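Customer ticket, subject: "Can you confirm the structure for NUDIX hydrolase?"

Message body: Hello, I'm evaluating your service for our small team and ran a test protein. I'd like someone to confirm that this is what the system normally returns, since I don't have a reference to compare against.
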Amino acid sequence: MFEPRRIRHCRACGQPARYEVPAEDTRERAICTACGEIHYENPINVVGTVPVWSDQVLLCRRNIEPRRGLWTLPAGFLELGESTAEGAMRETDEEAGARIELGALFTVLNVVSAGQVHFFYLARLHDTRFAPGPETIEARLFREHELPWDELAFRTVRETLRLYFADRARGRFEVHAGDIR
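Agent reply: Thanks for trying us out. I re-ran your input and got the following:
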């Protein structure tokens, strides 16, 4: 079960906060002991792409923790002020330096234990010139049989790639939703 982040101080006034169930609510929330501000803790959104060139998928070798040195799809945290699609394009540029045409939403995976929701979009690469940013050791294209399955950083990436190649083999892409426990 997911343990929420513990808020100790009010974000509005800085005074101590305590957890209790507010009136007309059903969940424990952090409530300021001074001003009464209620602080809600919600899942973090991770956005990314499945960038494709012909029969190959672009992966990035992580240069940061967690899971430094392992492979992932280009993805990261959604920023305030951007849509999931905008965030996915930004992350693809930041991590791989890849130019893409964004396609349809492909997977929505709830990572309940981490308090995250991962959104991956299909994407078509414009070319094979990559300029990885500081969070990436290298960006490289892989055919299905070349994928480093045992060196993938995250279960959401493994599941998204598994679904991608299954849909490609069927000749039809769908939106997939699921839970990673």
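A couple of notes from the result: The chain has two helices and eleven strands. The mean pLDDT is 96. Feel free to reply with more questions.
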